[in-house]
Design a protein that fits this description.
The two termini are 28 Å apart. The chain has one domain: NAD(P)-binding Rossmann-like Domain (Rossmann fold, 3-Layer(aba) Sandwich). It has five helices and six strands; from the N terminus they run βαβαββαβαβα. The chain is of the alpha/beta class. The mean pLDDT is 90. It comes from Leucopsar rothschildi (Bali myna). One of its GO terms (cellular component) is cytoplasm. Pfam families: NAD_binding_10. GO terms for molecular function: catalytic activity.
Length: 170
């Protein structure tokens, strides 16, 4: 494990050397970091990490993005996620897998009352429609690993929520 300063990520290029696969789940919230901080973390840091990984020999980059990611969106969150998807694809990995999960179901350390309420509701909905609106983070993690272990079907693969559920349970 290497601890890096994302504000000076270029100084940590050695941490990105010699890896065949890169996994990226980096992200924050607008509430926690402000709009500028959100863009810096979710787009700029991720894009720079992808570039360093590619320069270090990474062949397959796996990016956790978001359902609805679209660089043309009027919503900051979805626009930034779409922009970073485009930036990561442009880096030129042999393979790039983008996962677009819906609402992530997980236990958080910090208190987010509204998110907790939504997760409780989605937990009930998930029993009826398990792949529609949410996905447990453990399922996303298993899908990320599984996509690396399977033969590639093209240079870029985008997995939407249903495919993440299927791959994460395989």
């Amino acid at each position: 494990q290497a601890v890096v300063d994302f504000e000076r990520l270029g100084e940590h290029a050695a941490a990105f050397q010699g890896h065949d696969v890169g996994f990226c789940c980096l992200g924050t919230t607008r509430a926690k970091a402000g709009a500028d901080g959100f863009v810096r973390v979710d787009r700029d840091y991720v894009a720079q990490a992808a570039e360093l990984a590619r320069a270090g020999g990474c062949k397959h980059f796996v990016l956790q993005s978001s359902r609805g990611a679209n660089a043309q969106s009027h919503f900051l969150y979805l626009r930034v996620k779409g922009e970073v998807e485009n930036l990561v694809q442009a880096v030129g990995f042999d393979r790039c897998t983008i996962l677009r999960p819906a609402v992530l179901l997980c236990k958080r350390q910090e208190s987010r009352p509204m998110e907790w309420i939504v997760q409780q509701f989605l937990g009930v909905v998930a029993r009826l429609f398990p792949t529609a609106y949410s996905v447990p983070v453990e399922t996303v993690a298993r899908a990320m690993v599984a996509c690396v272990l399977q033969p590639g079907e093209g240079k870029v693969m985008v997995l939407e929520n249903r495919a993440i559920h299927e791959l994460g349970k395989a």
